[in-house]
Write a structure and sequence with these properties.
Layout lengths: L1 E4 L4 H12 L4 E4 L15 H4 L5 E4 L6 H6 L7 E5 L11 H15 L4 E6 L2 E2 L6 H11 L2 E5 L5 E2 L2 E2 H12 L6 E6 L4 E2 H11 L5 E5 L1 H13 L7 H5 L10 H7 L6 H14 L4
């Protein structure tokens, strides 16, 4: 039995569909499905994992400890979603939560894998690329620290789900950590491709990062935007995640950003999102 926490997330939903198509037994655990389990408090968590052979968590990494502490006594493999924030040097609460989750996982006595994914795009709940598309539609120019020349590695949601499927159906020995990412390109190139996908032009102007940080701080104070200042600070970092791990371990070759974006935009247009 495969038990999936966070089953109503984009990733959890697509993984459920893939497991169903393969005829594999699984149980969805989410508040939307009415599951009597709360990862925040731990109430009911042990009960829903009682017969689990594999536990997959598509929920936030902060809930790793709750899952680990409530695992059944039977042998149960773990497949946990983390985040590539784990590799960032920018002081950030999200990065700290993921690092703690990894430490909790590595300290437990169960087999399995934790997956640290870079920016995931293409789902209905993600907002990174959708927010960028919205900005391109509304504004004639986009300000970007350093002109957006830093390297990013966005990864299409189905590539993540393919890795999760392999992870959930693999018999693991020991605990492993694998980073998942798409093929590298500059933020500037990513923005240009986003503009092209909706038939717009995109003019990018370099601005000092501190000016954007001041603006975001002011907007956050008046609650005009929920933007995390850490995202702007990450413009000073190049994402540098080797693709060898996901290719060798999961046999998943991440698709080019333009190809994944085309699929994402087609889906969002059908739903009236863009």
């Amino acid at each position: 039995m495969i038990v999936i926490f966070g089953a109503s997330t984009d990733i959890g939903t697509r993984l459920s569909e893939k497991l169903r198509a393969a005829g594999l037994p699984f149980r969805r655990i989410s508040r939307r499905d009415g599951a009597a389990a709360d990862l925040s408090s731990g109430v009911g968590v042990r009960d829903v994992m009682e017969d689990a052979d594999v536990v997959v968590s598509c929920a936030h990494a902060r809930y790793t400890q709750s899952i680990v502490e409530n695992l059944p006594s039977r042998p149960t493999d773990l497949v946990l979603m983390g985040s590539a924030w784990r590799y960032s040097a920018v002081p950030n609460k999200r990065a700290d939560e993921v690092r703690k989750a990894e430490a909790d996982f590595m300290a437990c006595n169960r087999n399995g894998v934790m997956l640290h994914a870079a920016m995931i795009y293409g789902g209905n709940q993600e907002n990174n690329i959708q927010r960028l598309l919205g900005a391109i539609r509304r504004f004639p120019v986009l300000p970007a620290p350093g002109g957006g020349r830093q390297i990013v590695q966005p990864i299409y949601i189905d590539d993540i789900v393919d890795c999760l499927f392999v992870a959930a159906t693999t018999k693991w020995a020991g605990r492993h950590v694998v980073a998942l990412a798409g093929k590298p390109l500059s933020w500037r190139a990513m923005a240009k491709l986003c503009a092209k996908s909706i038939g717009r032009r995109c003019v990018i102007i370099p601005v000092p990062a501190f000016l954007l940080l001041v603006a975001i701080s002011l907007l956050n104070k008046i609650r005009a935007t929920p933007i995390d200042a850490g995202i702007v600070q990450r413009f000073g970092e190049n994402v540098d995640i080797p693709l060898s791990g996901m290719i060798e371990i999961f046999a998943v070759q991440p698709r080019e950003f333009e190809a994944g974006l085309r699929l994402a935009v087609e889906n969002w247009r059908r739903q009236g999102v863009v």
